[in-house]
């Protein structure tokens, strides 16, 4: 097996399992740990993985995106803390956009129930979870339903969004970086997110630390478009400060 084949094998394993370990890769491919580390450094430079202490995890791209089911198994305590902090930011907002994805789904569950709210979403899971709440009016965007995320996309969704003025949007992303802004692998998903950003008076990004520094295929917003970024405490304080210099308040929970 040459180096290119080995790196393809590493990437396939990372995408199948969600992460890889240097020691296990060394044993599996029969090469030195330093060789694996060089492979991972090169793969990170090409935007395929993000390295961690002792391993790496795959970056979502035009050719690879995790499903909603997979996301419900990763960093769940961190996502729950982020969602709770997001719920505290609603303030006097009466109309909300809640994005697709597992963290936004948790945010929907953390919304206040003590007064009327109107929630616009592309996520069938979020719409279903809020539908029985007496104080919440749910508007589900129309369009084609993506199987992996169970959310609507397409011109029906973006056209419907274009007719609203939304007080507060909770937005997710597959990657956020100071260089490339907020990104997602699929152009049709990017269009829905970009439209939500355009029609919202206030915008909050919510995502775990693994999103930071990652760049996917389609850019839909800039870091400076957001008043607040909520993430977990695993994002280094110095890095959080660098994002705050671009405009948003950065909350680590």
TrEMBL record:
Keyword Repressor: yes
Keywords for the protein's UniProt record, in alphabetical order: DNA-binding, Repressor, Transcription, Transcription regulation
Pfam family, one: HTH_DeoR
Domain named HTH deoR-type: residues: 3-58
Domain of life: Bacteria
Database matches in InterPro entries: Carb_Metab_HTH_regulators, DeoR-like_C, DeoR_HTH, NagB/RpiA_transferase-like, WH-like_DNA-bd_sf, WH_DNA-bd_sf
Molecular function GO terms recorded: DNA binding
Signal sequence interval, chain numbering: none
Gene3D superfamilies for this protein: Winged helix-like DNA-binding domain superfamily/Winged helix DNA-binding domain
Summary of the function given for this chain in its UniProt record: Repressor of the lactose catabolism operon. Galactose-6-phosphate is the inducer.
Protein name: Lactose phosphotransferase system repressor
Source organism (scientific name): Streptomyces roseoverticillatus
